[in-house]
Amino acid sequence: MRTHRHPARSLALLFCVALAPAYVETPARSAAHQWVLSANESKLDLITGVSRVVGPEGNDSLTLMDFAQVPPSVVHVPHVSNTVLGPPSNVSITPDGRWALVSDSIRLDPANPGKWIPSRFIHVFDLAQSPPRRVGQGESGEQPSGLAIAPNGRLVLAANRAGGSVTAFRFAEGRLEKIQEIALALPADEVSDVAISADGHRAFASVRLRGYLRELRIEGESVTATERKFSAYGRPYRIQLTPDGALALTAGEGFGNGGDIDALSIIDLTATPPRTAEHVPLGRAPETVELSPDGRWLAAVLMNGSNLAPGDPFHTDHGQIVLLERSGKSFRKHQTIDVGPIPEGAIFTPDGRHLVVQCHPEQRLWVFEVSKRGLKDTGLRISVPGRPSGLGTIARGIADARGTK
Q: What's the domain count of the chain?
């Protein structure tokens, strides 16, 4: 978890899973763009063990990649404000691949340029234009961080890390219209991420400093917080929901010193009542967890001490990717791979054939091939014009989420 960063202000198909893994077949996308979008920040860096201001506003950027072929085509879009403060789930693309959303979480404090204050905006980009162009924005609560787009593409949720809330938006033809703001916790509790189920009727938000996930119910455009809170290991950050609707997954750093082993929390949504069922040890300081489109693989990104100050006894010069494989209602470690220092986001391409990993100080993306055997480093590195901090791809639509079974 990002203890080195911002302070505290700062399913449709539920069924019992037996012993065999439950995957969802994802139909091939026709003539598909395999979009992956990296948000790159230039205001802050993390190499000293804490976040510090190193540049003025205005130089952040986006990098849009089309993995329909590998190496992908790459387009850089300058002057797009975004930040490393918050989970790397501040980027998402609508299920039709047409629109991209990017959280604009902070801005430098005009009264003290060495510090920052929360922002409230979400950028909207039209990916059909060449180059992609910003066409609007929506106003959220304080410090919008994790984003989630419903499978129908018409409802967007933003977790407001400095606001203790989730904002619901109506989305149509490039326009974000605020519907409501749902209070979940105190602002200091850090509501960091949000995920929507495959049937679009349920969502979960991580309340980081309180150590739980909060359940929300969705009925059309109405979003209501239930009283259900699911206990999670440490400080839960990123949330993933399996395509079959059976499991909710989250991971985050505990309250240790950067050298302790942290864990994945597995919530069984098929249980009566649903409950947190298992904690799976991962490694040191998970930053994000990302599911493959078919739900078979879970990639956990670990800081592994690379985010600590150089003189810290637990400092290392590399992060790690831990690949876990679905086994019934659990995930088991399959592979561990060293990557560059301070890895931020990781994302599977929409076709599931590649995994892209951000390495913050290197200003590069590492590309891995995904096969039945696991991950293989392709050796491909994509340079970006800033420190890569958030990573997203096409949100799964209803057909993709339900599969063909």
A: 1
In a domain, 161, yes or no: yes
CATH code for the domain in which residue 304 is found: 2.130.10.10
Provide the residue type at 403 as one letter.
Answer: G
Q: What is the pLDDT of residues 301-350, one digit of tens each?
A: 999 999 999 999 999 999 999 999 999 999 999 999 999 999 999 999 99
Has residue 15 got a pLDDT over 90?
A: no
Answer yes or no: are the C-beta atoms of 213 and 192 closer than 8 Å.
Answer: no
Q: What is the pLDDT of residue 8?
A: 37
1 and 181 Cβ atoms separated by less than 8 Å: no
More confident residue, 49 or 315: 315
Return the bridge partners of 143, or none: none
Inside any domain, residue 109: yes
pLDDT at 232: 97
Cα(243)–Cα(236) distance, integer angstroms: 20
Closest CA to 197 of 22, 350, 331, 12: 12
Cβ–Cβ contacts within 10 Å for residue 376, how many?
Answer: 13
- For range 112-116, the mean pLDDT: 91
Closest CA to 59 of 73, 49, 45, 70: 45
For 376, the domain range is 35-402
Question: How many whole angstroms separate alpha carbon 163 and alpha carbon 224?
Answer: 17
Residue 5 lies in a domain: no
SS3 395: coil
Using the structure block, give the residue that is written with the tokens 């592979």. 335
Q: Is 369 within 8 Å of 354 (Cβ atoms)?
A: yes
- Give the span between the Cα atoms of 111 and 215, in whole angstroms: 38
Residue 339 resides in a domain: yes
